[in-house]
Amino acid sequence: MPSSGNVPWRQSRPVTWLAVTAVALLLSVAAAASVNAWRSFGAPFPGLFVDPYADFSNVSMPAWAQEGLPLRYPDRLVAIEGQALPRAHLFPSQTAAARIAALARDGATEARLTFSTSEGPREVRRPLLELGTNEVGFFFGFYAVVALFLLWTGGVVLVMAGHRPGARAYAAWTVGAYLLFLTFYDYHTTARLPAAFSLGGVGFDLGFLWLAYAFPEPPKRGRAVLRTVLLAVTAWGVGAAVWMVAAPWLGHDASTTRQVVGQGVPASMAVLLLSILLRLGRGSGRERAELLSAAWGLAAAPATLAVGFFVALASGSGVVHLFVPFVIPLLPLSVGFALVRHNILETDVVLSRRLLAGPIGLASLGGALLAWLALRLLVREGVETWLPTLLSVPVLVGGLMACNRLTLWLFFPAASQFRPSIEQLSDQLSSLHELPAIRQAVEAVVSRWLPTSGPVRVLEARVLTSVPHLPEDALERLNTGQHVWTLETPWQRLLVVPMRSLGRLRGVLLLPPKHQAALYTSEDLTLLATIASLGAVSLHHAEALKELEALRRSDVEATRDEKRFTLGLLGAEMSHEIAYPLNFFRYLLKRSGKGHTLEPQDVEIGSEEVARLERMLATLRKLKSPAPQLAPVPLVGPLKRALELIREPVEEKRLSVSVEVPEDLLVLADPDMVLQVFANLLRNGAQAVDPGGRLGVSAALEEGGIQLKCWDSGPGVPEALRDSIWNPWVTTKEGGSGLGLAITQRLVSSLGWRISLERKEEHTCFCIHVPDRALLTSPAAANSTAASA
């Protein structure tokens, strides 16, 4: 499986060091060629080039006036001004250059050159010229820029898709082309780097053959046979390169090998052209579409150059060398286009603009150099020589800007879509509050600017495990904000972009491969990450709103339930409190039925209870608990009234009641509430004790006020209910309502008092703390004791 990183081709440390060494050697060749070119400025030459072995070269410029020159490659220079050139020298062209320089120093304006041709010796007279900016600028400067351009593209393709044979074949071809183009000028002038030129020529030829075999992938039929033949040709090529390098040092002439290698250039181009045409004819579907995207360079460049070289060999014309550096970049451009737009080499790299910085800079530099050379040709007398340099600077800047815009348009559309996409999504999300609508909006915005081979989806984090082929550490990496690729081939893998907000994974963007398997770019990932962040924030807000809505509904339900409970509790309280006067009236009716007459005290109590019932009903009409109506209250009064209200159970059980409360103890309270408190507590005590039991009320001084204690001799409250005995509906008596103590606690609290439950000396005690602020008599009076009732 390919890795999910940005550089899929990882090699061992020795291979890395070998690559670094190779790059250093290639750059050292560039440095040496640059020094040699600089030193050649102003050197005289006879208006034509010869190679290091003094063979005539078809390379020429229009200013050299070679029309009608009866020479062809490989006619050999054998004498200058009738003096034979010694062949014993390692590179005879260096001896020829020294003699030409001597003629120029002697004031000669032309030189008589003798060449050995297939038709016998032939003499020509050539004017002595100087190697100037045109020659050096074009045949070295422009060729060197093209060489660096080719080498950079080879390195980029190797880094991006080094696991593919087609990528390695292309990288090998760019190395050969780099050496060939970089040393082209030196090979025809100073002849100090002919070995590098020979290696470049062989690599150039073999690179075309390996491209024909391996790009974009080796053929399925006849692969073994073709590979065997190609390995044999490669072995011969390596041997030929070694022989061409070693032959001069061994005193041998390798001209035949050089001619075969030279003729191999158009032949290898023709093989590549034929291979592309055959693949296109046999291919179908995706394979054919991918190859078509690269065919305009892979086929057009070799075809054009092959025709040009055949014409040059047949006619001796040197024009082909003037357009070679313009045609050959079509090949890397087409490979790069097919790689980026169709992933023809099946790489899993994310395209970064840094990878294209070199080609953009070199293309702009080449354009500026050509502009500088063209402007120099237009310089007339009286025009400053620095003017072409000044005018070529805008060409360089304009070239950088134009190339940058072109690459952005072709490969990085996300850069131009960033702002409008974000603004559009922000506007849409601001009006959406439902999770499905937010997901659909994010999917629609991404699909609008990013052409993909399938639908874009926004998934919830909880269903992430349903995505197949995820790496084991996918969830961990997504939670840290990293994007993840599924473990599939580069043509099938999915991109998973995290949607995080406040450090939490809210969901993921799931994206299929781009349309026609184009590479994802760093700008794509940046825009996707921004969209994912906006979507995550919106999802978070929607989830928060959903939770708030749920809380609001819950609060409404709770409020409604609370109101129901309050109404029920209020009704139950009323029912509970009405029971006291009803029981009292029932008691009086029983006595009347037995012939007893009503005492004035009973009539007075009944009237007061009726008044209290009317006040309770008035409270019920207001549907709320009444606020205390504070007034001075002698505690003995409500206490005795409460005892009268529970007279029936006291008499039936023959209970002993003790009241130890001072007659003059006054408190600031609501008399009805105090009566309800005493009535509830005494009634509970009367119900809890056995016949013949005891209950009572006492008052005692304590810190910060007095303590009223309602006690009984009953069994007490079970330990399990002591914490909940004050809650409504909690009771220890069969048939009890469970409201008496709840009502009592509410009444005590509304008065600003406190109540607690204790078990002391076999007594159950309800202790009421009355603070100092509610006392209207001296607390010391509470120490007096009243008679028992």
Overview features:
57% helix, disordered N terminus, disordered C terminus
Derived structural class: alpha+beta
Helical percent range?
55-70%
Question: What's the gyration radius in Å?
Answer: 53 Å
Quantity of strands, as a count = 17
User: In one word, what is the shape?
Assistant: rod-shaped
Distance between the termini: 99 Å
Largest sheet: 5 strands, mixed
Quote the beta fraction: 5-15%
Rounded mean pLDDT score? 83
Number of continuous helical runs: 23
Low-confidence stretches: 1-10, 781-789
Q: List the strand order in the largest sheet.
A: 12-14-15-17-16
Textual characterization of the structure:
The chain is of the alpha+beta class and 789 residues long. It has 23 helices and 17 strands. A five-stranded mixed sheet has the order 12-14-15-17-16, with helices on one face. A hairpin with a 2-residue loop joins strand 4 and strand 5. Helix 6 (194-214) runs parallel beside helix 8 (255-282). The model is unreliable at 1-10 and 781-789 (pLDDT under 50).
Write a brief caption for the model:
By secondary structure, this protein is of the alpha+beta class. The chain is built from 23 helices and 17 strands.
Itemize the secondary structure elements and their pairings.
Blueprint: H1 13-39, E1 44-45, E2 76-80, E3 83-84, H2 92-105, E4 110-117, E5 120-127, E6 129-130, H3 133-161, H4 165-182, H5 184-188, H6 194-214, H7 223-250, H8 255-282, H9 285-298, H10 300-315, H11 320-327, H12 330-342, H13 357-377, H14 387-411, H15 413-429, H16 435-449, E7 457-460, H17 474-479, E8 484-485, E9 495-501, E10 504-511, H18 522-593, H19 600-622, E11 631-634, H20 636-645, H21 647-653, E12 656-660, E13 666-669, H22 671-688, E14 694-702, E15 705-712, H23 740-750, E16 754-760, E17 763-771
Parallel strand pairs: 12-14
Antiparallel strand pairs: 1-6, 2-3, 2-4, 4-5, 7-10, 8-9, 9-10, 11-13, 14-15, 15-17, 16-17
Helix pairs in contact: 3-4, 3-13, 4-6, 6-7, 6-8, 7-8, 8-9, 8-10, 9-12, 13-14, 14-15, 15-16, 15-18, 16-18, 18-19, 20-22, 22-23
